[in-house]
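[recover] target loaded
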């Protein structure tokens, strides 16, 4: 493995370039994100499904966390942030050597080991405030939801009797898991600036403001149209808010975060509660967790709304670029006479979403086909209840 320049290799535990505050926050943020998966998703998904599937759902989240960490340090990090192999993909390489891990990260005043722990996604020329997820985080976004939906297609639907009634097995634990997911998202978005900065504070605040607005919007719609609020609806509204605000967390104003919350709490509600039973295409895929609505749609809304509401000054603070026209939301492009730049950014947002969706469809299909050629993709009915 290549070595970093000697001036970046530390000769003591706390080199001059190390900012202890930033490093402490990044490690804390990475831990908060990890808590979203273990125990957050383990409790949430284990409680949300039927009792006979509870252990299976929880255990999948548990062992997936371990598997992703191994794959990430084995080749994922260097493919994302190492030497370029092709235009959109890096060369696979391990991130385990101390000479590499103890040097200064390419962004931020902390070791690369901290960066490896926190980073998670390939960065595109696309306004996405939280471009980084901690290793092992089962990121709830449009991109990764496409993978889940493709897996649903390959595995096949549930039995008709299981699709008709799908109550959670433990509502209190479901709320506890949802709470861990919500609070852990502070590290998910707050760690994106790689510094203990004002931008990080704004990102955390916007995250909670949007999520609260989305949750309350979903509850109000449930109340007005069905006569009573729904606990499961509250969780769904929370998730749509978290997913929607993620690409915009530190680059939009607070009022925009509230509007994004209202949109993320109403549009997915409408598609899930009204359109789903009317549109045949939506019924073709067995989607027990409603990922199409609460994740894929909410993530798409987040990417597009970020391209509309992104504040040029906040983008410059986060991306550290002086050019006003490189990152400018359409709303501000129209306001400042930079209409073409605003529409260009909206186009980049849409193209970015389309690219990663197509990439995930193809790669997930290939992976499922290869696994299915070796072992059955679908567990037997007896197997779902025989975990020890």
């Amino acid at each position: 493995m290549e070595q970093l320049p000697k001036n970046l290799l530390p000769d003591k535990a706390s080199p001059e370039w190390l900012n202890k505050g930033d490093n402490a926050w990044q490690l804390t943020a990475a831990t908060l994100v990890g808590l979203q998966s273990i125990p957050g998703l383990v409790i949430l998904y284990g409680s949300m499904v039927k009792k006979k599937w509870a252990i299976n759902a929880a255990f999948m989240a548990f062992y997936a966390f371990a598997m992703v960490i191994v794959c990430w340090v084995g080749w994922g990090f260097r493919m994302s942030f190492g030497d370029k192999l092709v235009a959109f993909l890096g060369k696979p390489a391990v991130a385990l050597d101390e000479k590499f891990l103890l040097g200064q990260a390419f962004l931020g005043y902390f070791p690369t080991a901290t960066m490896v722990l926190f980073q998670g996604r390939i960065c595109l020329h696309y306004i996405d405030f939280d471009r980084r997820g901690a290793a092992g985080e089962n990121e709830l976004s449009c991109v990764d939801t496409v993978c889940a939906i493709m897996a649903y297609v390959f595995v096949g639907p549930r039995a008709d009797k299981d699709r008709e009634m799908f109550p959670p097995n433990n509502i209190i634990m479901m709320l506890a898991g949802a709470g861990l997911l919500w609070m852990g998202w502070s590290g998910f978005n707050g760690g994106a600036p790689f510094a203990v900065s004002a931008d990080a504070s704004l990102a955390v605040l916007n995250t909670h403001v949007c999520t609260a607005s989305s949750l309350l919007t979903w509850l109000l719609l449930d109340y007005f149209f069905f006569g009573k609020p729904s606990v499961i609806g509250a969780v769904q509204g929370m998730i749509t808010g978290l997913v929607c605000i993620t690409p915009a967390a530190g680059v939009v104003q607070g009022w925009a975060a509230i509007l994004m919350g209202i949109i993320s709490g109403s549009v997915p509600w409408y598609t899930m509660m009204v359109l789903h039973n009317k549109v045949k295409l939506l019924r073709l895929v067995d989607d027990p967790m409603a990922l199409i609505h609460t994740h894929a749609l909410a993530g798409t809304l987040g990417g597009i709304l970020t391209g509309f509401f992104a504040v040029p000054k906040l983008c410059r603070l986060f991306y550290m670029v002086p050019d006003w026209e490189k990152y400018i939301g359409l709303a501000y492009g129209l306001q400042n006479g930079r209409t073409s730049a605003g529409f260009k950014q909206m186009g980049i947002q849409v193209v970015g979403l389309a690219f990663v969706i197509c990439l995930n469809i193809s790669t997930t299909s290939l992976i499922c086909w290869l696994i299915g050629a070796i072992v059955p993709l679908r567990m037997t009915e007896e197997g779902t209840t025989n975990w020890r």
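[recover] notes: The first strand starts at residue 84 and ends at 86.
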